[in-house]
Specification:
alpha+beta; Butyryl-CoA Dehydrogenase, subunit A, domain 2; Butyryl-CoA Dehydrogenase, subunit A, domain 3; 3 domains; 9 strands; 52% helix; 15% strand; globular
Length: 378
């Protein structure tokens, strides 16, 4: 395994940083935050439709670019650095569920629009948001006269208010299945929820007796048997989230070091004081550890399914804690100014806190990893 980016991947990363530096600076992010939907539609059109970011990890046969998980990680890292207000991550989530759980016909039907940026996707798995755990699925699905009828509510659906395509986990008997639900389907109600992180909107999605054709159920396995596909999709999506969290942590470290060099107290730059410079050094160690974990998972997502069993939860736990800790330290390094609305440090801290619970917190990810290592317990 070589974690160094290829020439094409490095060029992709540089291009992403250039575009986001021009189109997702502090002013543009705050302007998107002020909109009701929290969405920078022009930036999304550029990134998804013109630059092809939404299809980076989707195969060419389904309309994607087919560059794999490492290329996607490189772009999401830059999105995390810039706090880009675009629905790239939720679209990747929906596409991953479709790719992992869907039949060839279903992938051919739904993936091209997501890969080409013609549609926005969202994943509605746990009913209350957070951990993608089968036990957290309460929305019900029943087969009635050849059609599936979905009822219930999903909270914490990232970009659920924007989605053209929702991939919904619903309980069927004692198991769980995944269903493709058009965002505008009759009976689908969506409401933007108040959230800590104003750079990323989440929605409550209510399914009021939503009727879907039999073909809306993903896969051709027995009913209620999507648990294994959901587990694999979580690892792939987790690698993508970890890369985004890495980018946010990396930017926080940069802000801290830059400030420590120019802020003077007692006639010296604060970066010369042991308490500050050691704090920044610890942040660097944590960021580099998160980088290794995130890119290992991104590589494994495309090349080594067996390694992904360990790399996925490890990356999620490591990157999640690193982003939160580094964001919190950034506020401390900046002192009083770091607590103000005008400074961007609080935006990263809030993104870090919200992202930490997005797919299941670090403790839950460690529990998943322990189980895969054969460590049982109560």
């Amino acid at each position: 395994m070589d974690l160094a980016l290829s020439a094409d991947e490095e060029e992709l990363r540089r291009g992403a940083r250039r575009v986001l530096g021009e189109r997702s600076g502090a002013k543009q992010v705050r302007a998107a935050m002020a909109r009701e939907d929290g969405h920078d539609a022009e930036l999304w059109r550029l990134c998804a439709r013109e630059l092809g970011w939404a299809g980076l990890a989707i195969g060419e046969a389904q309309g994607g670019v087919g560059m794999g998980g490492v290329a996607l990680a490189a772009v999401l890292e830059e999105c995390g650095r810039a706090l880009a207000c675009v629905p790239l991550l939720p679209t990747v989530m929906a596409a991953t569920l479709l790719d992992v759980a869907g039949t060839a016909a279903q992938r051919a039907e739904w993936l091209p629009a997501l890969a080409e940026g013609a549609a926005i996707g969202a994943a509605a798995v746990a009913d209350t948001g957070g951990a993608w755990d089968v036990a957290g699925v309460g929305v019900s699905a029943r087969l009635e006269n050849g059609a599936w009828v979905l009822s219930g509510r999903k909270a914490g659906v990232v970009a659920g208010h924007l989605a053209d395509v929702l991939v919904v986990a619903a309980r069927v008997g004692k198991g769980v299945d995944l269903f493709v639900v058009p965002g505008a389907a009759p009976g689908v109600e969506r409401r933007v929820m108040p959230t800590l992180d104003a750079t990323r909107r989440i929605a409550e999605v209510t399914l009021n007796q939503v009727r879907l054709p039999a073909s809306a159920r993903l896969g051709d396995a027995g009913e209620g048997e999507a648990g294994a596909a959901l587990e694999r999709a979580l690892d792939i999506v987790g690698a993508a989230l970890a890369a985004e969290q890495l980018g946010g942590a990396e930017r926080c470290l940069e802000l801290s070091v830059e400030y420590a060099k120019v802020r003077v107290q007692f006639g010296r730059a604060i970066g010369s004081f042991q308490a500050i410079k050691h704090r920044c050094a610890d942040m660097l160690v944590a960021v580099e550890a998160a980088r290794s974990a995130a890119y290992w998972a991104g590589w494994a997502a495309s090349h080594a399914p067996a390694e992904l069993l360990h790399a996925g939860p490890l990356a999620m736990a490591t990157a999640s804690e690193t982003f939160f800790d580094v964001a919190a330290e950034t506020i401390q390094v900046h002192g009083g100014i770091g607590f103000t609305w005008e400074h961007e440090a609080h935006l990263y801290f809030k993104r870090a806190r919200a992202s930490a619970a997005l797919l299941g917190d670090a403790s839950w990810q460690r529990e998943r990893l322990a189980r895969r290592l054969g460590l049982g317990g109560q």
